[in-house]
Amino acid sequence: MKFNFFQALIPKDKKFFPLFEKASANLVEISRVLYEAIAKSSPERRKELIKEIERLEHVGDNITHEIFHELETTFITPFDREDIHKLASVIDDISDYINGSAKRLELYKLEKMTLPLEKLAELIYLGVQELHNAILELHNMKNPNKIKEACIKINSIENHADDIFDMAVAQLFEDHTDAITIIKMKEVLSILETATDKCEDAANVLESIMVKNA
Amino acid sequence: MKFNFFQALIPKDKKFFPLFEKASANLVEISRVLYEAIAKSSPERRKELIKEIERLEHVGDNITHEIFHELETTFITPFDREDIHKLASVIDDISDYINGSAKRLELYKLEKMTLPLEKLAELIYLGVQELHNAILELHNMKNPNKIKEACIKINSIENHADDIFDMAVAQLFEDHTDAITIIKMKEVLSILETATDKCEDAANVLESIMVKNA
Amino acid sequence: MKFNFFQALIPKDKKFFPLFEKASANLVEISRVLYEAIAKSSPERRKELIKEIERLEHVGDNITHEIFHELETTFITPFDREDIHKLASVIDDISDYINGSAKRLELYKLEKMTLPLEKLAELIYLGVQELHNAILELHNMKNPNKIKEACIKINSIENHADDIFDMAVAQLFEDHTDAITIIKMKEVLSILETATDKCEDAANVLESIMVKNA
Q1: What ranges make up the beta strands (E) of chain B?
Q2: CA distances (Å), B114 to each of A86, A169, A198, B167, C61, in order?
Q3: Does some domain include residue A7?
Q4: How high is the pLDDT of residue C214?
Q5: What CATH number did the domain enclosing B28 receive?
């Protein structure tokens, strides 16, 4: 049996891993609600779901603060202190961007959802699920390859989101003669796409943790 | 009396702290001038202040270069070399974005200032003052909690700026039928909002320095 | 003779340096093709070159993956594992943004190139050449000053690109009354400018490697 450096380096931890799992589980829920709001809801139902997204964003905020608080009061951490800080911050960013997307739908009074909006919301949901799986695996660390695979999938999801965004914007120029409609749609597409960028940033933090401890 | 790890780890330093204090004091001045230009000036006076902002941005550049130069020639630093590099770079970014905002006002020939522009300029000014206080405290390090509190305030200022930006853009869609005016205003609002993002990045560097040395 | 800490700290490496050199040489080629496409080509020829850019982007992707693979399987690295990861990622980003610029030209059906587009493409090409020179020097490390000089040039190229972008957008507002044309052009100018930002990020990684090992 090959010696696993990783298992040797990460001490048993009862504080940070459960908090990160709570944080990424909350991300799965908030992105599921966003996907439902965009892909499967009437305008009235969407309004309710946007409120729910705002509530879940506050839940996420509290978990982030818990992690920061633990970091201040804990001497020995399962991986680098600054990586704990980075990972918590980027999870918080994803939740912010999801909430920001939902807010813009409402603020810009966009009632008609489109296929690229649905597709991007679905990609966020998929990316966040991969992130959650990677974080669960970070705890057990029985199979570091699973983390690597999740990160590769997140990268490919982000590439896909880039393509969807580029083509959707080009399509806006084909379909609309009203510049204001184009600007509004482009803004919402753009913040959704940025949420997948942030998933990739989270994957980069995980990769960097693995690279340091490999 | 609790042992203060922080005080133990940061040696007395006569080079970097004074330079960072100069850099953040310059930020306070440049953001004060921006606020004055946007909130309290006639178009003629604004033109003069925009020139003053450009001058202060060059002053900031020179301080950044001094910090980088010290970094190359100094063997023992008060905190991690790479964090000194990051903190100096992000302070330089804030100054760049403030100057960029001022330049756009002029380039786009925007003569009529609006309440959200004023509010964002005020938030930058407030955020930069918190940053300056945190940096002064970094030197004394008598009360690390003060740095933490400043960082929390900077984060909350950035959240506030996000909300102002989102609502201001939504309002543009309500108030204007001319897409070009919307684009111009959105660009200026956006760069002002990004300046508060950069303040948050600076707070993150400070938090990361504290986390590493806690 | 002054003792060179740098040479002492970086062991002879036959894996990473050649891969980074391949990666930055590919960047030089992809940015050269972008410059040719924008500055010197008929619309028909441009289409072919955009395909070539896409091909080179895939070549770059494969080099990035090779670097990541080496990182997983190599125990001793010539500089910090996380900096290898960061440098490879940011080189990949530059290539992505160059390909993204080319794609937008095609997707938005922009046939008429402008002077600011040419100028930005040229600045990317120049910045990438400086980056390539710095990376070649990283290997020999006979003259660390050369890396520093390349980084300073990259920073100044990025500042120049910022100015070109700002003035070009202001000019769009002067020259066009059609908001949709403005939006399209602004999007392409913006992604080109972002490519120079990413060159600056790469320079920051190099500076940070030097700062850590100084």
Answers
A1: none
A2: 36, 29, 32, 13, 46
A3: no
A4: 62
A5: 1.20.58.220
Which residue pairs from A10-15 have beta carbons closer than 8 angstroms and sit at least 24 positions apart in sequence? A10/A78, A10/A79, A10/A141, A10/A213, A11/A76, A11/A78, A13/A77, A13/A78, A15/A70, A15/A74
Interchain CB contact of A136 with B (< 8 Å): no
Angle at B131 between CA B129 and CA B133, to 5 degrees: 70
DSSP B110-125: -----HHHHHHHHHHH
In a domain, A1, yes or no: no
Question: For residue A150, is it within any domain?
Answer: yes
Range A157-195 burial, b when 16+ CB lie within 10 A, else e: bbebbbebbbebbbebbeeeeebbbbbbbbbbbebbbbb
Query: Does any domain span residue A113?
Result: yes
Q: Say yes or no: B213 contacts chain A, CB-CB below 8 A.
A: no
Q: How far apart are CA B49 and CA A85, in angstroms?
A: 39
Q: Please state the ipTM of this predicted complex.
A: 0.85
- Find chains touching chain C: ≥3 CB pairs under 8 Å: A, B
In chain C, residues 13-52 whose CB comes closer than 8 Å to chain A: none
Determine the residue type at C159: N
pTM: 0.90
The model's confidence at residue A78, banded by pLDDT at 50, 70 and 90, is confident
Number of domains in chain B: 1
B212 in contact with A, Cβ within 8 Å: yes
Task: Report the C-alpha gap between B169 and B183 in whole angstroms.
Answer: 10
What are the angstrom distances between the C-alpha of A54 and each of A34, A61, A95, C21, C131?
Answer: 10, 11, 9, 47, 43
Residue carrying the six token digits 């399962």: A78
Q: What is the DSSP string of A133-190?
A: HHHHHHHH-S-HHHHHHHHHHHHHHHHHHHHHHHHHHHHHHHH---HHHHHHHHHHHH
Q: How close, in Å, is residue C71 to chain A by CA atoms?
A: 7
Domain that holds residue C143: 14-213
Q: Is C108 in the A-facing interface, judged by CB distances under 8 Å?
A: yes
**Taking Cα atoms as reference points, which of C131, C188, B196, C154 lies closest to residue A169?**
C188
Reported as a single tens digit per residue, the pLDDT across C79-98 is 888 899 999 999 999 999 99
Structure tokens at A166: 């580029």
- pLDDT, tens digit (0-9, with 9 covering 90-100), for B77-88: 888 888 999 999
Secondary structure of residue C76 in the 3-state scheme? coil
How many other C-beta atoms lie within 10 A of the C-beta of residue B107?
Answer: 19
CB contact under 8 A, B180 and C183: no
Q: Are A130 and A31 in contact (CB under 8 A)?
A: no
pLDDT bracket for residue C211 (50, 70, 90): confident
